[in-house]
Each structure stands twice: as C-alpha cells, then as structure tokens.
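hey can u check if this looks right to u? its 144 residues, i copy pasted from the old doc so theres a chance i mangled smth
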Amino acid sequence: MVVHYIDPSPANFQAFKDLPRGEPVHMLNLLQFADVANYPEGHEHAGKGWSGRRAYEEYGKTSGPIFERVGGSIVWRGAFQTMLTGPDAKQWHSGFVAHYPNAGAFFEMIKDADYQRAVVNRAAALVDSRLMRFEPGEAGGAFG
C-alpha cells in the first residue's frame, strides 16, 4: 500500500506545536506534483486541466505575500535529479527550505484567512510531499 502525505497528521502537528515557538525555524519541503491538479468540485480552478506544477505556482502566487508578511524567506531551492539514498520509487520534483523568524510566524501564516483559501492550490497540486522542521544551524565548513 502506497501512502501519500499532503497534510500533517494530528499527532505530527501536535509534536510541531509542542516545540518552542520563539526560535528561528527552517522547513524542508519535498514536493511531488500530480500530473493533473485535483481541485475540489466547484472550486474556481476545477476543470481547467492545470498540471500539479501549475497549481503549485498558483499556491505560491496567492500565499507568497502572506509568507513574506510573516517574515518568511526561501533560503534554498532545487530541482530533483536522482535518489542516491532512499527508496528508488520516490521521485521528488522540487524541494526548498523555507526560513521563518520563529515558529509563531508559521502559525500566523497558516491561520490567515487568505492563506487558508490559497492552501487549496497546494493540496490540489501535490500527489505527495514531506514537510520537516529543522533548527537552523551554521552553514559552511565540514560535515559534523
């Protein structure tokens, strides 16, 4: 059975909420786009035949101003090329690391009414994803 992840489970979201909220946060996003976006019936973009990538672009366009308003920024972005370590069947299309000045900014974003309307585009765009919280560390230098 293949499991796809678009939204956090209640347990994972609670674990996120239980972590400190006043510290900077890096969120690693791994994205696998649907061939055709899966909008709910009646949504303004349903039936347009958009690709998942196009629907994700709409998500970026509509959620971007909110992300920036709460102090978010993209610190790294890349296009998937091949899996070196991990399941061969997993083919991510895109990945990025979003920086938030603190976890409270992330909560402010996801509670925003305009964001909640925009996130429908994300759900329609993706067939699978991962969203992982990291404490930012020092860049550069050697491993370890």
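The helical segments are 10-18, 52-69, 103-111, 113-125.
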